[in-house]
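Renewal narrative, Specific Aim 1. Our central claim is that a sequence can be written position by position from structural information alone. The example that follows is taken directly from our test logs and has not been curated for this report. It begins with the structure tokens describing the chain, in the order in which they were read.
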């Protein structure tokens, strides 16, 4: 049996049945999200950006370090995805990564992902004639220390070609679990 497609050309003309059809397609599309995220992570392979390892290896090392330090799966998945925006939003990659994880993770983990780029600057901004202490504008934020810890323990030191890095497949079950169901969405967001 072939599923019927909608025929409306403007949303105002759609019917309840049209949205039932769209809803079925949306569920199928949502269930494929982990596979799309994994495919996009693989796009980071081969691009070193001048570093000693490619962007995928950096992401895997960051997640490996977090996992070996006993962080929970949600945190480890955030570590894995923290630079996923590099290929599409190189000027604001952390914001893109935060938007991807936001529906699925705690507000604290989302904040760490979103702000890690500024916090990471502590290690190199001074070499670019920028303020390495730019992160201090968040000094009074309750998660300042958490983001600083993420950068210190897992991110800034994950460019080592000799590090025993776990493969992407090692993180797939955790990623699938974290992305199994959103904790929040646009339908229950309060702005």
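The sequence written for that structure reads:
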């Amino acid at each position: 049996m072939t599923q019927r497609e909608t025929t409306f050309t403007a949303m105002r003309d759609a019917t309840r049945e049209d949205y039932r059809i769209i809803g079925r397609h949306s569920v199928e599309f949502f269930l494929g999200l982990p596979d799309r995220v994994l495919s996009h992570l693989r796009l980071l392979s081969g691009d070193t950006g001048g570093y000693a390892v490619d962007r995928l290896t950096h992401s895997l090392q960051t997640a490996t370090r977090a996992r070996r330090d006993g962080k929970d799966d949600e945190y480890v998945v955030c570590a894995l995805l923290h630079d996923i925006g590099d290929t599409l939003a190189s000027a604001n990659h952390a914001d893109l990564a935060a938007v991807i994880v936001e529906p699925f993770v705690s507000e604290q983990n989302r904040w760490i992902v979103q702000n890690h780029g500024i916090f990471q600057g502590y290690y190199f901004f001074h070499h670019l004639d920028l303020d390495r202490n730019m992160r201090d504008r968040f000094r009074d934020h309750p998660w300042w220390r958490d983001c600083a810890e993420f950068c210190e323990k897992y991110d800034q030191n994950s460019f080592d070609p000799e590090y025993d890095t776990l493969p992407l497949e090692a993180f797939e079950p955790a990623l699938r679990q974290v992305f199994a169901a959103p904790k929040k969405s646009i339908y229950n967001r309060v702005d």
